[in-house]
């Protein structure tokens, strides 16, 4: 496929310490005959990773390293980043642009920036080739598979936001590099592969040690397919499909979508997550609402041992009638699932795991549903029909 003068862009993502800089240096070392531009993003004022690349023995004078600091290319530096890589492709004779994203970046937001630029024509010199997620095999094992109690000062002890970010990065990519495989026995590495497959069913996965990977496996994959990668996440695929029946695959992974329009009782739902949550659930994600808060969409996420509930946005049904009409006029498809009483409010959670009983989870969750009218129902905004 010909893209004219456009230069391919490879995004390297992965959480802090996964080995992104090591992988990047290894790619540069093996492809020393090609001309690269390297963009390194760091949240801090001093870009340590860019310094490591410059000081590495693989660094050559014809490799240009550009630093983007004090922000993330998926949000605060997004416009600057897109402008920068387009200018690099236009002004420098390079064959490819490699981008090491910040360890806390959201790859789906970076890909969305490329899609937006394609539509507007703002970036006419580059195209997104691949999003490569570097995964620490030892960390995944410790978080999801180890049955041992962690000491309180363990380096892998996490808050839920970090674990959810790691899984979000795995769920949105087309290539996974499972790094540090030498730290685990072969049978454990296989279990880690199966766990990753539970989150991300379609990405190509390569095992590597100390970031060593054949560049031909990473480069030249053709134009990045945003929709295909979005649906490669089991969570997103099932949420978008809206099918509640269980789905099984050859790896023994089961996923199903739970839906209920009535609100949860907050205390009962918290007790379910704390005391009765099935151990075989590897990942869960979805939107819920509570009887004591008809305003806010709550994002429920669980990965491994960690679970969290955070306010994500507002339900459209919670807006004043005038604003509701404006939103629904702009997005008429929302009315397809609009409920006469609850509007767009809905509990919708995807569960992914092995050897669990979906019917048991449904029973437990139905016990959390509040059968009484929401608190102060008279205060509920009028639902626009």
Task: Characterise this structure.
The model is unreliable at 43-61, 147-157 and 376-385 (pLDDT under 50). The protein has two domains: 7-232, P-loop containing nucleotide triphosphate hydrolases (Rossmann fold); 235-379, 2-Layer Sandwich (Hypothetical Protein Yjia, Chain: A,domain 2), CATH 3.30.1220. Helix 2 links the parallel strand 2 and strand 3. It has helices at residues 20-30, 48-55, 78-91, 107-120, 137-144, 160-171, 186-199, 226-232, 234-241, 266-276, 321-330, 358-366; strands at residues 7-13, 36-42, 64-69, 96-100, 126-136, 175-179, 204-207, 247-248, 254-260, 281-290, 293-303, 306-314, 347-353. It is of the alpha/beta class and 385 residues long.
Features:
12 helices, alpha/beta, disordered C terminus, seven-stranded parallel beta sheet, 385 residues, 2 domains, globular, 33% helix
At the first level of CATH, the class of the largest domain is Alpha Beta
Q: Indicate the radius of gyration in whole angstroms.
A: 23 Å
* Helix and strand composition category: alpha/beta
The helix count comes to: 12
Distance between the termini: 48 Å
**CATH H-tier superfamily of the largest domain:** P-loop containing nucleotide triphosphate hydrolases
Q: Which strand order spans the largest sheet, edge to edge or round the barrel?
A: 3-2-4-1-5-6-7
Q: Tell me the number of structural domains.
A: 2
Query: Which spans have pLDDT < 50 for at least 5 consecutive residues?
Result: 43-61, 147-157, 376-385
Topology as H/E string?
Answer: EHEHEHEHEHHEHEHHEEHEEEHEH
